[in-house]
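Hey all, quick one. A colleague (J.T.) asked me to put the MU-OXO-diiron job into the tracker so the inputs and the structure tokens live in one place instead of scattered across chat threads. No bug as far as I know, just bookkeeping. Sequence used:
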Amino acid sequence: MAVREILNDIYWVGAVDWGIRDFHGYSTYKGTTYNAFLVMDDKITLFDTVKKNKASDLLHHIRSLIDPRQIDYIVVNHVEMDHSGALPKVIKLVKPEKIFCSQMGKKAIEEHFHPKDWPLEAVKNGQTISLGKRTVQFIETRMLHWPDSMFSYIPEDALLISSDAFGEHLATSERFDDEVDFTVMMEQNAKYFANILMLYSPLIQKLLKNVTEMGIPIKMIAPDHGLIKRKYVGEMIKAYSDWSSCKAQKKAVVIYDSMWHSTEMMAKAVADGIMQEGVSVKLLDLEVNHRSDIMTEVLGAKAVAMGSPTLNNGLLPRMAGCLMYMRGLRPCGKIGAAFGSYGWSGEAVKLLNQAMEEMKFNIIDEGIRVKYVPTHNDLKKCVDLGKRLAQAVKAELGE
Ligand code: FEO
């Protein structure tokens, strides 16, 4: 990929990973990018690096502009290996005067790389440094999404280098938000939020409030993944505000797994009931939907219905895995309902309800259990469950 000047004397020098399809359990069907930015000022500064196996891409890009040894400073906004894996190679070559990171970042760098003589300089929240014509202000974003995470803000360009926030896993030859299809970008952006940041929603609310109170103008957001935002900065911040405040649409999802299609029949009947009440619904079979895509659908849905048959006194393994993943991400403000078929013991519905209780879902009733194969009457009860779920959605949304 070619180097791109994103602002006067500021260059994208990162790497595009077209082939990655799994990011520690998150499906990345559309690849990703590891963005790094080179600021040409009196102190030439590199913001973030890339994954270890992409170090040569980064260095090739830097070399097309300068000799890497001319770099004075490196800023490490985030120590996770997709942004720091190339650090040892880069530092060995560059021999930077200083490496700036957060206080927790310094610890994390030491614990990842065990360096002997790296010129690490921990910065505090709000601290500024001068690069010459520009300054950099560091904004600590602890636990968004690692303890070390921080943003770098360049006021002269109203540029926010935002680490993992506001990004998406999307490999493109384009670098800016206005050069791609908005819907495609936002789908991947929502997926990123749902799978990486959802559990930190209260902290995101606090951060957005702090940044608003700081009154800093932001004309461009340069995240460490995906597209640089210059046209849709406002839309991006609004989306984060909505998602982190549990705002949901008039929409439900029915997530299920099935052994011999009985729970599937029930899932369809629940979805029918939801539809009949005029609420949008998506039927998500765990056999064909990846858990990370399911979480993207859950993000914007007001209601979540979950169905599983009972297997060996428990849930089907795919449902158990999906629930474990979902519990970790802590979706907020959802209405829930459970259903499932069984042969003799029938614990699945109880287990689904327990999981939803833990996630503080508003569960509409004890759910529906059906022995072996549902009758027409059983399916009517499932339709009714769907209707009541949809009515609860409309009531909570004030309709
Ligand atoms: Fe993209 Fe948390 O690393």
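Adding what we noticed when we looked at it: The chain has two domains: 4-244, 253-393. Residues 253-393 form a domain with the Rossmann fold fold (CATH 3.40.50.360).
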